[in-house]
Amino acid sequence: MPTVPEDAQAYVKNTLGLCSWVEGDGLWLKVVKAWLRIDQAAGFEPSSKALSRLPTAGRPKEVGKWISYAQSATFRPVVSLPRFADEFAEWWRSMQPEGRKAIDDTFISIMSKPVITDWETVEISGSNGLVSVVVALAWWRKAVYDLLEENALRTG
Question: What is the mean pLDDT of the chain?
Answer without folding.
Answer: 89
